[in-house]
Amino acid sequence: MRKKQIAFTINNLEQAEGIITEAKIYKIIPILHFKNYILAGFGSDFIITFKNILISKFGKSSFKLFVDCGFNYGLSIDMIALKINYIKLKGNLVNLKKINNIASKNKVLLNPAFNIVDFRNRKKINLKFKKLYSRNKL
Q: How far is the first Cα of the chain from the last one, in angstroms, to the nearest whole number?
């Protein structure tokens, strides 16, 4: 049986950098999760700029992005076109099937099953990583 992957909810660049550097110690690729209100407030340009900054610091294969689009179909199609790795979308079945078609053509996973850990208010990231990944070594 395969375990669910863990996505880390973040708000700013400092939290993302801390998670990526800590994940390198445990030799995992972290999945950075953005809530719907961040995307609605700042727009898709914020996510692209954020991604480009992290790529310039850590490289392209050191992290993945998971974006919550809520009920906004247009925003989700925009994120699919920009090739964000994972997208969470709510809506009716007909629209989700159509958007899933678009996502599969662009190699983007729609509505994946992740365990989401909130890192927005954490000071000591390394302690939480020890709790999460020490069980995997047993």
A: 16
